[in-house]
Amino acid sequence: MKISTVAGMGAAIAGLAFLPLPAQAGFYGGDALYETCSTPKDSKDYFERSYECVGYISGAVDAFNTTREANGLKSCIPANVTISDLRKTTVDYLSRNPKDRAANSASSQVFAAIRKAWPCKAAPQGKKKPSRKRR
């Protein structure tokens, strides 16, 4: 193969990078997270996938809590909830919602599972101050 042919192929491949591609909802899909978290214990990659599962869920929950904190809100997850509880809650949610997990990002599925298990209480509605009309 001539160098000019290789260079031409490289330019053609590089040009493909500018083609519009469908946007992904997230880096990691709900089905992928479910598969990772559901790896059988007798599988040779069980420990690796188990750590990946727990690491992903923990990171997603930390991100949600950081977002709440940045908006002046507290976490809705009780202090006694463990990472194991978060994993079980998420995997149970994913197993009961196959259509959602197939269509949505893993992070949105973790968020949905956590919100369903530990819903945030509505903020208390303060008394409105009477409005003063200016004349």
Give a short overview.
Residues 30-120 form the Rap1a immunity protein domain. With 135 residues, this protein is an all-alpha fold. The chain is 59% helix and 0% strand.
Notes on the protein architecture:
This is Rap1a/Tai family immunity protein. Residues 30-120 form the Rap1a immunity protein domain. It comes from Sphingobium olei. Residues 1-25 form the signal peptide. Keywords: Signal. It is a single chain. By secondary structure, this protein is mainly alpha-helical. It has a domain at 25-117: 10k-s Protein, Hypothetical Protein A, Chain A (Orthogonal Bundle), CATH 1.10.890. The chain is built from 6 helices and no strands. It has helices at 3-16, 30-37, 46-70, 83-96, 98-103, 106-117. The longest helix has 25 residues, at 46-70. It is elongated. It starts with a helix and ends in an 18-residue tail after the last helix. Mean pLDDT is 81; it is low at 1-25.
